[in-house]
Amino acid sequence: MRIGIDVGGTNTDAALLGHDDRVLAAVKSPTTPDITSGVTAAIRALAPPVESVAAVMIGTTHFVNALVEGARLTPVAAVRLGLPATAALPPMADWPARQRDAVGGHGYLCHGGREFDGRPLSPLDPDELKRTAADIAARGLTSVAVSSVFSPVAKADEQRAAEILRDELGEGVHFSLSHDLGRVGLLARENATIINASLRDLATVIVESFGKALAEMSITAPFFLSQNDGTLMDADFARACPVATFASGPTNSMRGAAFLSGLGDCAVVDVGGTTADIGILTGGFPREASGESEAAGIRTNFRVPDVLSLGIGGGSWVSPDGESGPRSVGYLLTEEALVFGGTRLTATDLAVAAGRADIGDSSHVAHLDREFTERALERIAERLAEGIDRMRTSEAVLPVVAVGGGSVLVPDGLPGFADVRRPWHFDVANAVGAAIAQVGGEVDRVFHVPDGRRDAVLAGAREDAVGRALDAGARPGSVRVVDIEEVPLAYVPGGATRIRVKAVGDLDLGRLPAATGADAGAIRDA
Amino acid sequence: MREVTLDNLDDIARGAGILGTGGGGDPYIGKLLAREAIRAHGPVRVVRIDEVDADATVVPISGMGAPTVLLERIPNGSEELAALRALERHLGRRATHLTALEVGGVNSMLPIACAARAGLPLVDGDAMGRAFPEAQMVLPGLAGITNSPMALADDKGNTVIVEAVDNHAAERIARAVCVELGCQISCADTVLRGDQLADGLVPATLTLAARLGAVVREARAAHGDPVEAVRATLDGKVLLAGKVLDVDRRTEGGFARGHARVEGTRDDADRVLELGFQNEHLIATRDGATVATTPDLICVLDSDTGDPVTTEGLRYGRRVSIVGARCDPRWTTPGGLALAGPRSFGYEVDYLPFGSAA
């Protein structure tokens, strides 16, 4: 059995899945400031047979929320190896002031880095790095982000620089290296690395909180966090790379929707308290956004699902002209909505008045004009349908799967989309999505592709990606390549081509480390 | 437009991306470079072509190299000025104005950054009126103005002066130097006297870029149609709106060549448009018939946002609208077509005068 948990800003959702992937139990409970007690409460409500739990998968929005708020971030020393190049745009040059201030804005430009073909751009200067270390120490910084020009082609400079800095700074200083985190594109990769470094302390706290919650429930199975691409990372990896959880929320809800509805190709509408997020699934995986993405106004280059967010949710304010959103009562729904005795007309009140939902006390909305209610709900349906239409890529009939607590706002048929499904356990699709997450392996490098060798180079890259998925814990035989991208570098001779291959497979529960020998058999059978 | 400021830089960058017809690279890094330079040195004064004295020395500034390399090995900020100074030493006189060789993509931004650092005014115009991949594909070449001497500079302090026998040779030599210097360099070349500007430049393209960026921004804010706003501003035609079905790329002679198939949606359902590109979008064939060719502009826009889509940004499933627009008339003369017509890029078709297709 597996437990999937989604720790959102407002609610902690949890689902228990049997060995045949059936959902055995599902609950929603409030997120608590200390995290531990909220997770414990959710698991307690699931009441799993703890000895049969083989793994726990957790999706969390903690890290992205911390960045957006600019709170709980660790000050970072951002060391870039690239002089004499790159000086025109120092680290964090494109950051919003709030986030730059939150991480301290400490940027260091040093020599090092490579050319596109791996030649040295300039040699590393150990003395320069030692002087840098002295300044880092003097400022009391304990988290260092190292990025080097063309490190996706050659990572040695980042590793060597980190060694030199570590020797000077001593143990207890964290290092985030850019080639572990991002792709070609220095600023975006460096940004992801700095964000990651700023989350390292918080990651330790959060991972410990999750571990503590499981220990309190006597669950000895390992736990994993879900990543942006719908694959899993273990606790050690989560401590090292918290930034890889950033877009896991929408990914989990879409993957959960696909799983619960049995549809691999569909549109997913995930309606929460404040927004309705629309995404498109192809073959069970969310379509990725093209190009770079932004997190809290900072350009990064990890891949994220392509999601259209509309300001429509269960908590949306409804104005006198019948329009809903974008303002919302958010997590105060149970205090401010009419059906809960509040004074604010919300979209949830409309759904209750129309008899679509049984939430709170319907007598508080009995006075609403029936025609007004219907028109306002119709307007919501129109906007959702328009959003789905904008996201789809062909006129082909596309089923729509509605999930999330606010999906009572989605009627059984939308204009242009007659087939709307609301699967069982729709309100905990996030948690189910976390529970079914897979493990992945990826290759993204600039390859030299001589004439006539393209097939061989591609085959090698595929093999590497599959190998990485197996190393990450995938079950042999279940791994498949889900995406290949090949972009020749313009104006560069010699067939330099950027190749990206992604492979995913099912988590091999039988290969999971067990907390005690006695549990190992149970885990294999689970 | 009298000044490039922090306030109109975003509009110019977006508009330049549209005029880049798929090439010229993502102007994002260029925009940041220009922004940092304006922050440090103040806004850039912009002058019209007819405001420049006849004996003025106007130097076009550009970057050469691979957009991917620019995204990774960011400049140190001294390269354009180093190229300019090397050219001035060689010429024995100082530049009085700077201008753009190419309004498309990142090359619209580098002259702005350089003008801010050099404290020189920028002439509103450029030598292409769009983006082309090679240095000899410029209007001054048609007017008999050579691109030599050409000054090239990298971020390490290396500079190279090219004195070539003709513009094609200069391009080949510069390209080889560029690769040796790491595939991203700055160039100062194709020096124009004030009285040559009317022949050598497409006027007011900086202003046009700013206007294109502004109409897209305004259309989005008003929930209008940004693609239609671009079409109207360029007095162009929407050739097709659809989704990208297939992209085939290969590298030939250092250029990313390929084609993409776009399947029409809605009003264009059942129609298919093939895009041929070599760094820029160069030819559009709809349902088997050519509908637009270089040197006319073939702009691929994101259907929802109106943002320009580069050839590298074409991905399966992306919704795009293809807008065709007329190029500067000098490009459609026999000499212009010899430089930048479809056959100069290896396509076995003749130039199709804009608007003559159904």
TrEMBL record, chain A:
It comes from Streptomyces durmitorensis. PANTHER family: 5-OXOPROLINASE RELATED, HYDANTOINASE_OXOPROLINASE. This is Hydantoinase/oxoprolinase family protein. Residues 189-389 form the Hydantoinase A/oxoprolinase domain. Residues 2-168 form the Hydantoinase/oxoprolinase N-terminal domain.
UniProtKB/TrEMBL annotation, chain B:
Residues 8-163 form the S-Me-THD N-terminal domain. Residues 166-353 form the S-Me-THD-like C-terminal domain. Pfam families: S-Me-THD_C, S-Me-THD_N. It comes from the Bacteria. Transmembrane segments: none annotated. SUPFAM superfamilies: CV3147-like (SSF160991). This is DUF917 domain-containing protein. It comes from Streptomyces durmitorensis.
